[in-house]
């Protein structure tokens, strides 16, 4: 972004990578895939790179409003300095925080999640599912991230990216507004769970198995970690793949 | 004449007592902090019509939804008949609407009877679901003796009231056929005609039954009215304002604390002068730190347990139960209210909602997934109470779990919840 600004250019959209997308190895791949999609359709975009900082989401959900607002105000200062108007995020938590909680602190942007970007490109005919891997005959299900689905009512965008594939989209018993959390939200990602009978991601695996899915799609780096661990937990790593909507789009188009 | 006087005294006493109890509940709710829910009245009326009046969130569980709908419609419509009973009671008339309404009256009474039967059957099924089938949703740590009895009292009272109503009609129907006294031929009795053969044939016995049921039914209703403020059944009234004052923002959005904004701004810019310097506690330790909306929700909760049955923490055996959060809030608020009545408004006992009612283990088990908020048929938000209590624990006490304190430290120092350097934030671009 700094480079573009120095050259006097303004990108169409700012890609907010997020902490997981920046540091988590698996999520880094998804970050690069989102970039591939942006390049493929010719959208000019920028990232903040080292100027990006955590949105403050996990601090806020854990009750540390001070830290959240410190993070938020720092980020808003950077975003406003670059006169950013439109943001796409690779994470539902960043999406929710910037879209809903930054406006009250002086950060007003049009914010979309990357599955909404993909849905828009499909609707405009700019993105198809051709030239890449075929998903024919593979049962795909979508795990709704809480902060995308219930949190913001985005249920159809990620499914639009799956519906154009040459395959069957199956729903789990608990889906859409009834979707079961992966267990990572509310800062649970950063602590051990409280004592109980089992872990939440293990509970979610019963839905995955019941749906007979071979691919579990999601749109959140934290769900990705929890679901991948869940699949490992039931020893089904060979049979069941966990993929982000961006990864599936890249595979289907051979990008 | 003496009957009329007794009726009027009972009616006035019931209305007075109910008014007094409602005023007390209102006083308790207003112990909460202010929050503005007056915006966008058009959207609020709409959501109330849809969710409260139309019960759209009930349909996720169709069996319960259908039976609840019978009881709800029955309750609302049979109230027209209660109006007639009231007028008859005050003026000593009998079936006062029968003349002015003509043939429509028969249709109405017939309709009431069918509804009464549906209410009765639904209550019997609900009773069986709780006590014979023992549905999991109706158990749990918070479902102690009182909540279980409360539910059974409500169902039993409704079954008795409907039985009395139908028996009263059956006796009336038989008296009409005998052309006895003032029992003019009026109404149609599709349901009670079926139970009429079970009643005695003698006119005076029938009259005793008819009068007995009439008094039992109306006194029962007035007593039930006064039971409401002590019971989970209060939802039949509070559901409407509670849904009207729903949160209209996306569920993922948590409030930004204005008091914190002031401090953060002052920290970033020493010349910043906050507009108001209201000294208040960060987050929630006791019920009086909650907003009036949180407190209204506590009184609205009917303990159906839809929230708890979809809570990922509860499903996997953790201590957290969103229903318990609401029930604890109401219990503590009732306690605070009783203290005020007994010892005056400045009385402080040594208890708080945090620790004495809700434990930290419960608070930290929440994934903030909003499943409980989505599931509630009357738009109650247990998550807000959980988050506010976390805020107190973290910001006033610095008592977050150690691993979360690590996460906070990382975020403060590196701008990420993990221990990675901010300088490495763009490294993803160099890998393939």
Automatic annotation (TrEMBL), chain B:
The chain crosses the membrane at residues 6-23, 65-87, 107-129, 150-168, 180-200, 212-230. Gene3D superfamilies: Alpha-helical ferredoxin, Transmembrane di-heme cytochromes, Chain C. Residues 292-322, 356-386 form the 4Fe-4S ferredoxin-type domain. The keyword Oxidoreductase applies. Keywords: 4Fe-4S, Iron, Iron-sulfur, Membrane, Metal-binding, Oxidoreductase, Transmembrane, Transmembrane helix. The keyword Nucleotide-binding does not apply. GO terms for cellular component: plasma membrane. GO terms for molecular function: 4 iron, 4 sulfur cluster binding; metal ion binding; oxidoreductase activity. Signal peptide: none annotated. PANTHER family: IRON-SULFUR-BINDING OXIDOREDUCTASE FADF-RELATED, IRON-SULFUR-BINDING OXIDOREDUCTASE FADF-RELATED-RELATED. This is (Fe-S)-binding protein.
């Amino acid at each position: 972004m700094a480079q573009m600004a120095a050259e006097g250019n303004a990108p169409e959209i700012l890609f907010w990578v997020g902490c997981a997308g920046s540091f988590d190895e698996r999520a880094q791949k998804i970050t690069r895939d989102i970039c591939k999609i942006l390049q493929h359709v010719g959208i000019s975009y920028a990232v903040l790179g080292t100027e990006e900082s955590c949105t403050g989401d996990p601090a806020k959900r854990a009750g540390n409003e001070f830290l959240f607002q410190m993070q938020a105000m720092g980020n808003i200062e950077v975003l406003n300095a670059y006169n950013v108007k439109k943001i796409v995020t690779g994470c539902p938590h960043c999406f929710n925080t910037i879209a809903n909680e930054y406006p009250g602190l002086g950060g007003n942007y049009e914010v979309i999640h990357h599955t909404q970007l993909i849905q828009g490109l499909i609707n405009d005919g700019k993105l198809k599912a051709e030239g890449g891997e075929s998903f024919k005959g593979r049962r795909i299900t979508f795990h709704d991230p809480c902060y995308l689905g219930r949190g913001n009512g985005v249920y159809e965008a990620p499914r639009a990216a799956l519906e154009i594939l040459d395959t069957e989209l199956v729903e789990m018993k608990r889906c859409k507004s009834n979707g079961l959390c992966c267990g990572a939200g509310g800062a649970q990602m950063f602590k051990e769970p409280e004592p109980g009978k089992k872990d939440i991601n293990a509970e979610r695996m019963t839905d995955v198995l019941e749906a007979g899915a071979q691919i579990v799609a999601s749109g959140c780096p934290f769900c990705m970690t929890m679901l991948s661990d869940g699949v490992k937990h039931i020893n089904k790593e060979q049979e069941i793949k966990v993929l982000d909507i961006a990864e599936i789009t890249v595979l289907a188009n051979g990008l | 004449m003496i009957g009329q006087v007794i009726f009027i005294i009972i009616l006035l006493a019931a209305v007075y007592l109910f008014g007094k109890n409602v005023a007390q509940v209102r006083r308790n709710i207003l112990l909460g902090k202010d929050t503005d829910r007056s915006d966008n009245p058009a959207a609020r009326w709409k959501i109330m019509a849809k969710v409260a009046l139309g019960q759209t969130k009930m349909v996720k569980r169709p069996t319960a939804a259908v039976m609840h709908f019978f009881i709800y419609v029955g309750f609302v419509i049979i109230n027209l008949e209660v109006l007639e009973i009231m007028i008859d009671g005050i003026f000593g008339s009998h079936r006062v609407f029968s003349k002015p309404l003509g043939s429509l009256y028969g249709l109405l009474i017939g309709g009431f009877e069918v509804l009464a039967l549906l209410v009765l059957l639904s209550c019997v099924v609900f009773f069986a679901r709780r006590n014979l089938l023992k549905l999991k949703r109706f158990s749990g740590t918070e479902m102690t003796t009182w909540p279980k009895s409360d539910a059974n009292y409500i169902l039993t009272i409704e079954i008795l009231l409907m039985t009395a109503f139908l028996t009263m009609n059956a006796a009336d129907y038989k008296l009409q056929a005998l052309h006895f006294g003032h029992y003019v031929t009026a109404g149609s009795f599709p349901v009670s005609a079926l139970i009429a053969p079970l009643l005695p044939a003698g006119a005076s016995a029938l009259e005793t039954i008819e009068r007995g049921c009439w008094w039992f039914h109306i006194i029962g209703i007035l007593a039930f009215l006064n039971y409401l403020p002590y019971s989970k059944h209060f939802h039949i009234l509070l559901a409407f304002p509670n849904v009207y004052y729903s949160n209209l923002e996306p569920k993922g959005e948590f409030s930004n604390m204005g008091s914190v904004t002031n401090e953060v701004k002052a920290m970033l810019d020493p010349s910043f002068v906050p507009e108001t310097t209201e000294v208040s506690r960060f987050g929630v330790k006791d019920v009086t730190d909650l907003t009036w909306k949180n407190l209204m929700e506590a009184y609205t909760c009917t303990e159906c347990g839809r929230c708890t049955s979809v809570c990922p923490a509860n499903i996997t055996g953790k201590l957290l139960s969103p229903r318990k959060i609401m029930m604890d809030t109401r219990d503590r608020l009732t306690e605070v209210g009783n203290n005020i009545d007994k010892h005056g408004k400045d009385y402080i006992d040594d208890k708080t909602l945090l620790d004495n009612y809700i434990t930290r283990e419960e608070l930290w088990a929440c994934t903030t997934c909003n499943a409980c908020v989505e599931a509630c048929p009357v738009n109650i938000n247990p998550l807000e109470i959980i988050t506010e209590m976390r805020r107190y624990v973290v910001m006033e006490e610095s008592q977050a779990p150690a691993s979360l304190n690590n996460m906070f430290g990382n975020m403060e120092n590196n701008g990420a919840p993990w221990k990675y350097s901010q300088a490495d934030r763009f490294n993803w671009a160099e890998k393939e």
